Amino acid sequence: MTDHRPWRGVLVATALPLRDDLTVDLDRYAEHCSWLVANGCDGVVPNGSLGEYQVLTPEERARVVETAVAAVGGERVMPGVAAYGSAEARRWAEQAAGAGCRAVMLLPPNAYRADERSVLAHYAEVARTGLPVVAYNNPVDTKVDLVPELLARLYGEGCIRAVKEFSGDVRRAYRLAELAPGLDLLAGADDVLLELAVAGAKGWVAGYPNALPRSCVELYRAATGGDLATALPLYRQLHPLLRWDSRVEFVQAIKLSMDLLGRHGGSCRPPRVPLDPEQEAAVRAATEKAVAAGLA
Q1: Cα separation, 264 vs 272, whole angstroms
Q2: DSSP string, 163-189
Q3: 254/263 Cα distance (integer angstroms)
Q4: What is the per-residue burial (b if ≥16 Cβ within 10 Å, else e) of 254-274?
Q5: Computed from CA positions of residues 174, 158, 106, 60, in that sequence, does the dihedral angle turn out positive or negative?
Q6: Cβ distance 48 to 105 under 8 Å?
Q7: Which H or E run contains 235?
Q8: Rounded to an integer, what distance in angstroms lies between the CA atom of residue 70 and that of residue 125?
């Protein structure tokens, strides 16, 4: 990746392989990062929600970033640096910079329903590290909504360079382009990838490439390249899986698909619990259908 904006392209929010005793398997994680890049992905995002960062120790969290950088190079690694406190989030950004990363991804304050002034102060604090910050808008889980007007202000004040948009509201892409045309929009939910690509997305912070990197990359390249004749049928085939990325059980679903495809997904740390039988059957059927269609 040579672009000075390392958040562009397909960046995989990496699932984290755990051993049977739920300790982190860093060797397997390194191999997974390398495998994703070898299969066409542009980079990885460790310590996102899919990477279960909330239940990692500080030592584990730091080593995950260092492992990814050693595997694929710092220019391909954009860690999540979310934390309850702004000082802690800044420390994680400094750790990422020290490891050689070129950008970080940051949720708004999420220990409480933060107001606009708190959001601005939070992003300004992390931006002081000097690394480009990609905002992560996930109002479903954080209860803080980075609406286009607020994102435009954050961009205008130099706090962010891009946004991972997970609201599911594709109409925001057009408003955001009007208010802050220099701010890069990244698709943040797998099941609106095509809609946001058509609306001008410059990247995809993606979940399902953990299991199906080649077909997901093909989808992204076709969609952003305007090749809808290729993108639309592929999107329809993948959508039964992609929509799991927007469900509460997204980590378990993606890890199950990985297991079924010969990758190590494995268990999750509590409080996440395994899929119930109906959910497991649905993910299994959709994964097997994707394999039968030659998408694996």
Answers
A1: 17
A2: EEE-S--TTHHHHHHHH-TTSEEEE-S
A3: 11
A4: bbbbbbbbebbbbbbeeebee
A5: positive
A6: yes
A7: helix 228-242
A8: 28
Distance between CA 10 and CA 20 in Å, rounded? 30
Interatomic CA distance for residues 112 and 260, integer angstroms: 38
CA angle 1, 102, 253 (to 5 degrees): 75
Cβ-count burial 2-35 (b if 16+ within 10 Å, e if not): eeebbbbbbbbbbbbbbeeeeebbbebbbebbee
pLDDT in tens, 240-293: 999 999 999 999 999 999 999 999 999 999 999 999 999 999 999 999 999 999
The two structure tokens encoding residue 134: 């990609």
- The span from the CA of 156 to the CA of 282, in Å, is 44
Task: Count CB neighbours of 113 within 10 A.
Answer: 12
Which position has the token pair 């910079």? 97
Nearest to 215 by CA among 288, 295, 291: 295
**For residue 279, which amino acid is it?**
Q
Look up residue 188 and give its amino acid.
Answer: G
Angstrom distance (rounded) from CA 212 to CA 216: 6
Total number of residues shown for the chain? 296
Q: How far apart are CA 218 and CA 229, in angstroms?
A: 12
Per-residue pLDDT of 144-193, as tens digits, reads: 999 999 999 999 999 999 999 999 999 999 999 999 999 999 999 999 99
Q: Tokens for 88, please give them.
A: 């802690």
CB proximity list for 84: less than 8 A, separation 6 or greater: 109, 110, 111
Distance between CA 225 and CA 248 in Å, rounded? 31
Q: At what angle do helices 277-292 and 228-242 cross, to 10 degrees?
A: 150
- The identity of residue 70, as a single letter, is A
Token pair 């299991």 in the structure block, residue: 211
Give the H/E segment covering residue 13: strand 9-13
